[in-house]
């Protein structure tokens, strides 16, 4: 009886000493380190976008004229492509939860193909700008345009590598971690798109 009582007391102490916080990283899907990376990347992009918005207040006419050379229809198509890619990534996680490995891999393939399509259209858009003589030294708008969208494109490429890796080892944890990064790439583009392409159009 003494031994039983001691075991119960130790169990109660463990429960008390290890409370589960609703904000703990361990409660998020996937690897907590991936979430630390995601938050840090969002903060970096956030700082760059704040700098862009602040600079626009000082150079309204330059920014308004610069936006007239952006390919809004192409960027809109690219937005749809990337969001659809994120939907395929979400499907992959769902299939992974039900141990449907083949369908999870097909969904990752679909997400990856759309990611490559986004990358190809973005490079085409860069070529359009360069053909017009609009490069990183044209003005502050295009300096930040190339830096921010180029940094995002680098994340797309890195995200495609991650999708390829988790397609090889589609465990539930890998799927949740990898697709979380891909959704971060989607989210950042959804913020970049209106700030660079749409703001100031009616002014």
UniProtKB/TrEMBL annotation:
Signal peptide per UniProt: none
Principal place of residence: membrane
Source superkingdom: Bacteria
Compartments it resides in: Cell membrane; Membrane
Keywords: Membrane, Transmembrane, Transmembrane helix
Residue ranges crossing the lipid bilayer per the database entry: 33-52, 72-93, 105-124, 144-169, 181-200
Domain Heme-copper oxidase subunit III family profile: 34-201
Family the UniProt entry places it in: Belongs to the cytochrome c oxidase subunit 3 family.
Protein name (Swiss-Prot/TrEMBL): Heme-copper oxidase subunit III family profile domain-containing protein
Originating organism: Pseudovibrio japonicus
Organism ancestry: Bacteria, Pseudomonadati, Pseudomonadota, Alphaproteobacteria, Hyphomicrobiales
